[in-house]
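[Discussion] Sanity-checking designs against the backbone

I'm trying to build intuition for which residues belong where. Below is a structure token string of 286 positions. I'd appreciate it if someone posts a full sequence so I can compare it with mine line by line.
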């Protein structure tokens, strides 16, 4: 049996989207890894499922990384699913349920989608960290002890744990080399998404991201949402900023009146296709 899917992206952050309201597919780590393999599978950064939602949600969204691990939130994928629902339902606002909570989405004109990503979390237990410390500057150093290359990142949870190093120039640092070291640092019991961020002006940030379970990605919506409050806590940027990732720019607003983060950015439907039987056991598809 074949299973239909959408191949979508948000600023180059690639997704395979399966609508399980139509095909009841069981997602296993093995299946996710097979589909996500860029050589023998379809290739993706995240596998996304759309399931029936409970009111007030229109649908529920599931998220699996390329390594097969399930995660709670993905900002770029939320915009993609929202765009599918706008087209399907003809609604001006949709609500998507995730393991990180309810995400409310609305069209923002010119093909953009705006998502209420909720409130950032800063307490060490909420990141989570393995030990108590002030999360605006945590105790991680990379390089020689007496002259570290990177040190003192901030930590924020925006549905996922994020570790953010502020640097003079993102081009000066090998994210592919140190990203996995920080992702798996003992301070992060659930691992972490790792960013380097360059403040270009109070309202403009350049960011590169290593996503846990994926690697370097062209964009990460929750990382862009995390970098603004992390920068504000260090008095480096304004509460509203354009965050430019390798794949393009997201507009982020950390609203002072309600402490919520609003992310605005584009989506793209690349193509529609089907997954064939080799990805599934007989019991996986009903």
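Best answer:
Here's mine. Compare freely.
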């Amino acid at each position: 049996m074949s299973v239909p899917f959408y191949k979508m992206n948000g600023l180059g952050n690639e997704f395979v989207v399966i609508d399980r309201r139509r095909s009841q597919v069981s997602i296993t780590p093995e299946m996710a890894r097979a589909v996500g393999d860029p050589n023998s599978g379809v290739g993706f950064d995240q596998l996304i499922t759309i399931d029936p939602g409970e009111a007030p949600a229109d649908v529920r969204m599931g998220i699996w990384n390329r390594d097969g691990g399930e995660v709670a939130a993905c900002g770029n994928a939320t915009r993609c699913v929202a765009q599918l629902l706008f087209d399907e339902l003809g609604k001006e606002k949709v609500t998507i349920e995730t393991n990180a909570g309810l995400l409310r989405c609305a069209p923002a004109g010119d093909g953009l989608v705006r998502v209420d990503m909720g409130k950032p979390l800063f307490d060490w237990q909420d990141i989570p960290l393995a030990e108590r410390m002030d999360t605006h500057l945590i105790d991680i150093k990379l390089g020689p002890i007496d002259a570290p290359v990177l040190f003192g990142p901030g930590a924020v949870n925006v549905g996922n744990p994020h570790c953010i190093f502020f640097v003079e120039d993102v081009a000066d640092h090998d994210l592919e080399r140190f990203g996995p070291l920080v992702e798996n640092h003992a301070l992060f019991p659930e691992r972490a998404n790792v960013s380097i961020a360059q403040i270009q002006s109070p309202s403009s940030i350049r960011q590169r991201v290593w996503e846990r379970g994926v690697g370097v990605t062209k964009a990460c919506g929750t990382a862009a949402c995390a970098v603004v409050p992390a920068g504000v806590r260090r008095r480096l940027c304004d509460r509203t900023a354009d965050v430019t990732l390798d794949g393009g720019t997201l507009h982020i607003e950390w609203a002072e009146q309600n402490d919520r983060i609003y992310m605005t950015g584009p989506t793209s439907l690349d193509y529609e296709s089907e997954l064939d039987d080799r990805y599934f056991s007989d019991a996986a598809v009903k």
